[in-house]
Amino acid sequence: MQGVFETGNWETKTIQEVTKVINGYAFASKDFKSTNTIKSIKITNVGVKKFVESVDNYLPEKFKDTLKEVQVKDGNIVIALTRTIISGGLKVAVVPESYDGALVNQRVAALVPNEKIINQRYLYNFLTTDGVAKYVLAHVNTLMQPNLSIHDLKNLAVPCPSLQEQQSIVKKLDALNAETAKLETIYQQKIHDLEEFKKSVLQKAFAGELKTK
């Protein structure tokens, strides 16, 4: 997929030029209670291309009005700033509808795309490429664990073709992802069928029913 974003003809802009970057707020541990009503997004919610929903990250209602600057909407992009990259890839995900209005906790950054410049799905796909992973690896502090600074995130360069071309790229990637998912389903079914066949053979073998000739 990296090749889709590589061209010498496109203008590049930094993340901070094409999005509003939200740096998470340092809520106190005592603020989180299961009886509260406002959802928050912690590092544990941000997986590799997957948003992990949880049931214990609730904050008091009062923060909804006092901390609007760290509030996100569904469709925004979130990135873990601590252990940003793991063996499976970059920890980046899309905020689901169920977390619309959630507040971002510390060590998580949220990106709100400027829709006049960048397509949200185009940007998300770009952030999942090997090129971005290499950028992160080159900039993280690995003395303790791979941490990405908000400064380095803001300065990540993004190739910016026209919105029309971005939409065309997204359409092609969607088709590719759909085909990949289809092939994975077929593969998993074949694995399942093979396992069932092996079980049948073993059962017959130990029941003395397996023909050897």
From TrEMBL:
Q: What protein is this chain from?
A: Type I restriction modification DNA specificity domain-containing protein
Residue limits of the Type I restriction modification DNA specificity domain? 9-186
Entry superkingdom:
Bacteria
Q: Which GO terms describe its biological process?
A: DNA restriction-modification system
Q: Which protein family is named in the record?
A: Belongs to the type-I restriction system S methylase family.
Under CDD domains, the record lists: RMtype1_S_StySKI-TRD2-CR2_like
Keyword tags: DNA-binding, Restriction system
Which GO MF terms are attached to this record? DNA binding
Q: Which SUPFAM superfamilies match?
A: DNA methylase specificity domain
Species classification: Bacteria, Pseudomonadati, Bacteroidota, Flavobacteriia, Flavobacteriales
Known InterPro entries for this protein?
Answer: Restrct_endonuc_typeI_TRD, Restrct_endonuc_typeI_TRD_sf, Type-I_RE_S_subunit
